[in-house]
Write a structure and sequence with these properties.
Number of helices of chain B: 12
Number of domains of chain A: 1
Radius of gyration of chain B: 18 Å
CATH topology of chain B: Heme Oxygenase, Chain A
Shape of chain A: globular
Number of strands of chain B: 0
CATH topology of chain A: Ubiquitin-like (UB roll)
Low-confidence stretches of chain A: 106-118
Oligomer: heterodimer
Strand content of chain A: 15-25%
CATH class of chain A: Alpha Beta
Strand content of chain B: under 5%
CATH class of chain B: Mainly Alpha
CATH architecture of chain B: Up-down Bundle
Strand order of the largest sheet of chain A: 2-1-7-4-5
Order of helices and strands of chain A: EEEHEHEEE
CATH superfamily of chain B: Heme oxygenase-like
Number of strands of chain A: 7
Largest sheet of chain A: 5 strands, mixed
Distance between the termini of chain A: 43 Å
Mean pLDDT of chain A: 86
């Protein structure tokens, strides 16, 4: 049975073989303390480092790429935007806040809206 | 008389209540996912969908007013859901209209109630009724668990087809990408509220009844989309892989 291991919380969720599951949904379902706020790929509060199992994740779509920017290449994913079909291990900073709320930090990304591009 | 189910038993019962009549299995959804539809069909879909989900903020507002102060987490969830529908990013109905315009439709056409099927108006009326008149736990079960939590399963099949088969850009199909993930979380939070506050056998049974009714409503509405707009062009729906037959013709 595939397992999502939330390393920072030392908690895990198992799910049925053959399923693809949303990472944040599984954390909320099992009351695991992953930081999150909007669940729409806008705030970036739920960015997680993929420690193992990146090959089991679906590729990031537009909203996630736009929000994370260069953090995607550093191994980050947004829990709300990410589906997994196999074993994966995530870690995070338990005190992290939204990317736009982090003083002095450049995420390399931008708000996921389409301002200026539509 | 039914007994009070445990949290895990009740969750299984809720999931089972709509698993046999999920809108992703209706003929219009199957034709969409297998690349059979034309852009004009999508204009009709968007128009009807606009009149079905356009007042979603209204539905949530009615539920908010019916939720007691002691259920503060439920009230906060409804408020956040409402904010995300209308204000946090692009307004969701504007994303829907953007998709319709990419298919050759216009904002005026989509917003004109006369262009919606009676089924869509029926969905709208049913949602106003449930959100305004039922206990907040029951309306959460109906609208959030029975309807909103189905959305990712529908759009996860349809979105790749929109990009890869029909040739829409990610920008044009933003409505679907957004709902694949946001409704995962809304759906799960809806489950948590229903599991927590349906604390009598009667409430649990009424939640199950309305989840079944919600699934039936959405399935019938989705089936009607095919019969009204697609069948005249493509004939009755026939599933190509007979090992996995569609539920409806």
């Amino acid at each position: 049975m595939p397992r999502i291991y939330f390393k920072t919380a030392d908690a895990h969720v198992d799910f049925a073989e053959g399923e693809e599951v949303n990472v944040l949904r599984m954390a909320i379902r099992e009351d695991i303390d992953v930081p999150w706020q909007c669940a729409s790929g806008n705030c970036g509060t739920d960015r997680l480092v993929v420690e193992e199992g990146a090959e089991n994740l679906d590729p990031p779509r537009r909203r996630e790429r736009a929000r994370l920017g260069e953090l995607v290449d550093k191994g980050y994913r947004l829990a709300c935007q990410t589906y997994t079909r196999g074993d994966v291990t995530f870690s995070w900073d338990p005190d992290q806040v939204g990317l736009d709320d982090e003083p002095g930090t450049s995420s390399g990304g931008s708000r996921a809206g389409w301002a200026g591009s539509g | 008389m039914a007994e009070l189910m445990s949290r895990s038993e009740f969750r299984v019962a809720l999931e089972a209540a709509f698993s046999g009549t999920m809108a992703k299995d209706a003929s219009f959804s199957r034709a969409w996912a297998t690349g059979k539809l034309h852009k004009q069909h999508f204009v009709h879909w968007a128009t009807n969908h606009y009149h079905y989900i356009g007042p979603f903020g209204d539905y949530l507002g009615l539920m908010y007013a019916n939720t007691p102060d002691h259920a503060r987490d439920a009230k906060d969830f409804l408020l956040q859901n409402m904010y995300e529908e209308e204000l946090s990013d692009d307004r969701h109905t504007d994303l829907l209209i953007r998709f319709a315009e990419a298919c050759g439709g216009t904002r005026e056409y989509v917003q004109n109630r006369d262009n919606a099927m009676p089924f869509a108006k029926g969905m709208q009326g049913w949602m106003y009724y449930v959100s305004g008149r039922e206990n907040f736990v029951v309306s959460s079960a109906a609208l959030i668990v029975g309807l909103e939590s189905q959305v990712p399963s529908i759009y996860r099949t349809q979105y790749p087809t929109l990009i890869n088969k029909y040739g829409f850009s990610e920008w044009e199909a933003e409505f679907f990408d957004l709902h694949i993930t946001s409704d995962e979380i809304h759906g799960e939070r809806g489950y948590q509220i229903v599991l927590k506050y349906a604390d009598t056998p009667e409430l649990q049974q009424r939640c199950l009844h309305f989840v079944r009714e919600a699934a039936d409503m959405r399935f019938a509405y989705t089936k009607a989309l095919y019969e009204n707009y697609v069948m005249p062009d493509l004939g009755p729906w026939v599933e190509e892989d007979e090992r996995e037959p569609a539920l409806v013709g």
